[in-house]
Design goal:
single chain, 204 residues, alpha/beta, globular
Length: 204
């Protein structure tokens, strides 16, 4: 960290808005939360998160879905796939999710986020009980069989380096709030499991 960075940090103060998170949550009739969907490429993270968002919208809740590919078109378009860039990618998304939760939203984030430390970093950005780690537990063999974008085939051929599950490690969650056996249940059943957990936690 440079001297310039230290001075900059000392002179930046978080602005407390008069309209609070609590006020926004009351207006939306929900509690803010970040559901962090993690799993291998092709596990079904975006599919399940998208189906859950549709159901929440039908029930009248306010949400936003952050998807890994979408943020790399804008917010993170300057980042590659090195370990450093992947960490920065998750850091930016975590900060964005935090701001969206401050707006009173239920945020659905679908990212491989292969390292436990990165997911824990995002958890620590949020108050207790606002971060729910959702492990989309689909085996590597099933993900490779699906290969919706043809990425596993390219990784096996050596055309893609540092691909999670092939030549880059994926660290499974140890104690996720929600564990979805995505290879053995229907999308509707997995969405219902998420909704039930949100109800138990009185988020919806």
């Amino acid at each position: 960290m440079t001297v310039k960075d230290v001075v900059k940090n000392e002179n930046i103060v978080w602005h407390q808005h008069l309209v609070t998170k609590e006020t926004r949550s009351i207006l939306k009739k929900q509690k803010p939360a970040v559901l962090w969907f993690t799993g291998l490429s092709g596990a079904g993270k975006s599919t399940i998160a998208g189906a859950l968002e549709i159901k929440l919208a039908e029930l009248g809740y306010h949400t936003y879905l952050l998807d890994g590919d979408n943020v790399r078109h804008g917010l993170c378009q300057d980042l590659g796939f090195s370990d450093h860039d992947r960490q920065e990618n998750i850091r930016r998304i975590g900060e964005l999710a935090k701001l969206m939760a401050d707006a009173g939203l239920i945020v659905l984030s679908a990212f491989i986020s292969p390292h436990r430390a990165e997911r824990e970093m995002v958890r620590n950005l949020l108050p207790n009980n606002e971060f729910l780690e959702v492990f989309v537990n689909t085996s590597l063999s099933e993900c490779e069989k699906r290969d919706p974008k043809g990425l596993y085939k390219k990784a096996r051929a050596g055309e893609i380096k540092h691909f999670t599950g092939i030549d880059s490690e994926y660290q499974q969650p140890l104690n996720p709030e929600i564990a979805l056996p995505a290879g053995s249940q229907s999308i509707d059943a997995l969405v219902d499991q998420c909704l039930n957990e949100l109800r138990v936690r009185e988020i919806i």
